[in-house]
Amino acid sequence: MSKLLLNGIWNYIEDSNSKFSFSKISTLFQSENIQSMKIPTNWELAGLHNFSGSVWFQKSFKLNSKKLSETISVLKFNGVDYFSEIWLNGKFIGNHEGYFQTFHFDVTDKLFFNDSNNLIVKVNSPKEESGKVWPLKKQLIKGIFNHHDCRPGAWSLEYGQDQNTGGIWNDIELFVNEKLFVENTKITSHLSQDHKSAKVQVEISYKSNFEAPRKTKIKLIAIDSKDYKTEFTQEIFIQPNQSKLNLIFEISNPILWWSWDLGKPELYNLNISIKDFISLKEIFAIKKVWIDSESRFYLNDRELFLRGTNIIPTQFLSEQTNIRIKKIVDFIKEANINIVRVHAHVNRKELYEEFDSQGILLWQDFALQWTYDDSVEFAANAVNQIKDMVRQFYNHPAIAFWCCHNEPGEQIHSLDKLLFDAVQSEDQSRIIRLASNYEEH
User: Fold this and answer.
1) 175 and which of 74, 236, 255, 291 could share a cystine (Cβ 3.0–4.6 Å)?
2) What is the mean pLDDT of residues 345-359?
3) Residue range 173-180: average pLDDT?
4) pLDDT tens digits, residue range 186-244?
5) What is the pLDDT of residue 98?
6) How confident is the model at residue 31, as a pLDDT?
7) Quick check: 364 and 340 in contact, CB under 8 A?
8) Nearest CA to 40 among 82, 80, 4?
C-alpha cells in the first residue's frame, strides 16, 4: 500500500459562466499552450483576481504498481472551495459542496495501474446575486469568506464579494491498495468525579473491500508526556464495505489537558494497530468543560476567568503556513489570552493543532455570518455541514465551545435550533451555543 500526494503543477481552464461540458473540457485540455497553476492554492493568489465561477483543473499521474486483490484505493481532498465535481479516467466519481471539509471517493475500479491516469476537477465558487440573494438570503456556507465588514469590499453590493476564495486550497491524496481505509477516528474521554481515572471511547469509521468478515485483533496504546503507556487489546471482526468499531478502555491517574495559565496542555498519543491490516496514530487529551447557572466557566472542575479575542487570520487558507500559524498563536499567548473565538469560519487543522499544543481554549463558530436563505433545502445543507465540522475537528482538545451562527437575527428561532440539535447529536462533551446574537454585544 502507498500514498501518493497529487499536489504540484496542474493545468487549468477558466469557465466563468460554467458553460463547458466535461467532453468539451477534455478536448480543450489536449490543446497546446494550456495555462498551469501550482496546487494547492486559492486561485486569487495564483493570479485569477476577482474571478468568480468555475475553473477546471487537470493532472496526469502514473502508478508504477499492480492492483492487489481485496484492497481499496481512495482519492481524498483535504479542502476545495466551494462546489466540486471530479472525473477520473473519463468516469465521473462524485461531487461535493463546502469549503472546509475533507472528502474522499472510492476509486478502486477506476485507476489504471502501470499506466497514465487522468484526473479532472471542476471547482465552482460563484458570486451570489447582489441585492436578491447576497447579502440577506445567502446560500453559500462560507461565513466571513463571503460576507463580513472586514473582507474585501465589506458591505458594498458591488464589491462585497471581491477576492473570491475559490480553489483547491489543500492537499490531494491518493491511497493505493489499502487493506483498510480509515475515514475518521473519534476519541471521547470521560473523566471520573475524583479525577483518578478516565474512560476513553474510540470510534473508528472505515471502508474495506472484503467479501466476508475477517477476524483479527486491535491493539490500542495510549502514551502520555511522561511516556507512561496504557495498553488495550481486543478481538474484532472487520466487516465488508463500510462499518465502525467502538472500543472503550480505562486510563488510571490520567494527566489532564489544561489551559496554559492553569497548568500544562497535556496530550496523549494513541497508537492504533489492527493486526494484518493497518497502523495509525492519533492525538487526544483528557479534559472536562462546563458552565454553571451563572455562566461561570470550569475546566476540569476548576473555575477559569476567560480572557478572549476573535480571530480571522487570513482571507485565504492556502497561505496559512505552519510558521505563520505558530507566530499568530505565540502572539495571542503573549497577550495573556486564554480563549480565542474562531470567528464565523472554520480554519485549517494545523491552526487547531497549535492551539492544542499551546493550551489556548477555542470558541468555534460554524461558518454562518448574518442571515441566509430560509428554505428547508438550505437548512438541510447547513445541518449536514455543521455535523461535518464537529466530526472533523472533534479530537482537538482546545475546542471548548461550538457556536451555530454569528448574529443570525430572527433565524435564531428557526435555522439555529436545527443546527443546535445537529451538533448535540455529534458531541455531548462540549458547551454548545445556539448562536451569538446582537444583544450580546
Assistant:
1) 74
2) 98
3) 96
4) 999 999 999 999 999 999 999 999 989 999 999 999 999 999 999 999 999 999 999 99
5) 98
6) 86
7) no
8) 80
Residues 102/105/111/114 CA torsion (nearest 10 deg): 30
Q: Is the pLDDT of residue 1 over 70?
A: no
- Grid coordinates of 229: 503507556
For residue 67, count CB atoms less than 10 angstroms from its CB and return exposed for 0-12, middle for 13-18, buried for 19 or more. middle
Residue 380 has pLDDT above 60, yes or no: yes
- Which amino acid makes up residue 272? I
| Cell matching residue 376 | 428547508
Specify the length of the chain in residues: 441
Query: Residue 18 is placed in which grid cell?
Result: 460554467
Phi then psi dihedrals of residue 240, to 5 deg:
-65, 155
CB 123 within 8 Å of CB 55: yes
SS (H, E, C) 214-235: EEEEEEEEEECCCCCEEEEEEE
Angular region, 336: left φ>0, alpha ψ -120 to 50, beta rest: left
Cα-to-chain-centroid distance, residue 177? 25
Alpha-carbon distance of 39 to 326, in angstroms, equals 23
- pLDDT tens for residues 154-169? 999 999 999 999 999 9
DSSP letter for 260, please: T
Structural contact between residues 266 and 258, judged by C-beta atoms closer than 8 angstroms:
yes
| Distance separating alpha carbons of residues 398 and 340, to the nearest angstrom | 10
Angle at 245 between CA 243 and CA 247, to 5 degrees: 170
Contact 37, 57 (CB under 8 A): yes
What are the Cα distances from residue 42, in Å, to 52, 121, 163, 314, 316? 12, 14, 10, 12, 6
Q: What confidence tier does 5 reach under pLDDT thresholds 50, 70, 90?
A: very high
Instruction: Kindly list the strands in the beta sheet with 83-88, ordered across the sheet, starting from the edge strand earlier in the chain.
Output: 35-39, 8-15, 53-62, 116-125, 83-88, 91-97
Beta bridge partners of 321: none
Contact by Cβ (8 Å): 230, 249: yes
Please state, rounded to an integer, the average pLDDT across all residues of the chain: 96
Q: How far is CA 201 from CA 80, 191, 198, 249, 399, in A?
A: 31, 11, 10, 7, 18
Q: What is the DSSP letter of 180?
A: -
Where does 248-290 have alpha helices with state H?
A: none
DSSP 8-class letter at 191: E
